[in-house]
Amino acid sequence: MRAIEKIELLEKIAQELQLRMTFSEIDIFFDAHGVKYAGIVPSANSKRIYAKEVLAKEKSEDLILKIAEELDIPHNYSTKSPREATFWKPGFFRLFLTHLASFKVQTSHLQSVLKRYAISAFVAHEDIEPSREWQQEIEAGLSTMDALAAILMDGFRESNWCDQEIGVAVGRDVLIIPIRKGMDPYGFIGKYQGIQGVNKTVGEVAEQVFITIVKSPKTRSKMLLALCNAIGQSTDIDEALDKVAILKSVDAVPEDNLEKLKDRVKDNSVLSESENFLASFNGMLAKFGVNKLVLVDAKAEDEWDDDIPF
């Protein structure tokens, strides 16, 4: 809920309480809902102003919506928590891919390649009459995505499902990445130039998707964190080396992210015991001006300690 929308809803609630209740009854009502009002002195002798100023300090939007519903005040917001999405890879960046069913094979290939960049992509296959269960999966994906990529091609605009998925992304104000496959962005996404997908390989498109995500202020922080997480928990040297190279290609990485990553690498025996990985990892750290990771050999340290005169 945006700030202006919250102010407008609080005004409606306050007006309704003013009409229905006395000051003491408003306090009883607030007590019933766990709303804290002790010590709050209204700026004017008005039940409406008092109720509004008390509720303005309430941080839980769900509680405000619950109060509005009890008072039969209409609103366009949902108090339901989004359905838990189990298809995202833990720790990865969450990208919703919307596309036509006729392009599902290529989209699945893109989904696979995006894993290289620590991007977990949800492929939404278009279906004229999707099952209720499939609709719930799509809704869960839309509710929990970090960004949406739309593969624009002939027939996309006529698809109600693809259009609705973009509408959700616009409503949630998440990053939208148009991938132009013979069709230019339109409507609410017309302001985005998008990525050219014609005569490109899946790998080239995936790289451009990553670059777009890591450059956007909306998603940069989550993308870098996901990449660092993927490196730190990796058990495959080649995959870890590849992601280190990707991280090194970025213009800048917060020092805090890199220091935490150093600790995770230190605790990861697969990575910390690989000289090849450590050399590449320290090279990446050097680029960003962070001290290299130095591992102490416990055995060597014990032997050296034995030589110290007592």
From TrEMBL:
InterPro entries referenced in this protein's UniProt entry, alphabetically: TIR_dom (IPR000157), Toll_tir_struct_dom_sf (IPR035897)
Gene3D superfamilies on file: Toll/interleukin-1 receptor homology (TIR) domain
Protein name: TIR domain-containing protein
One Pfam family linked to the record: TIR_2
Residue stretches making up the TIR domain: 88-213
Superkingdom of origin: Bacteria
Biological process terms in GO annotation: signal transduction
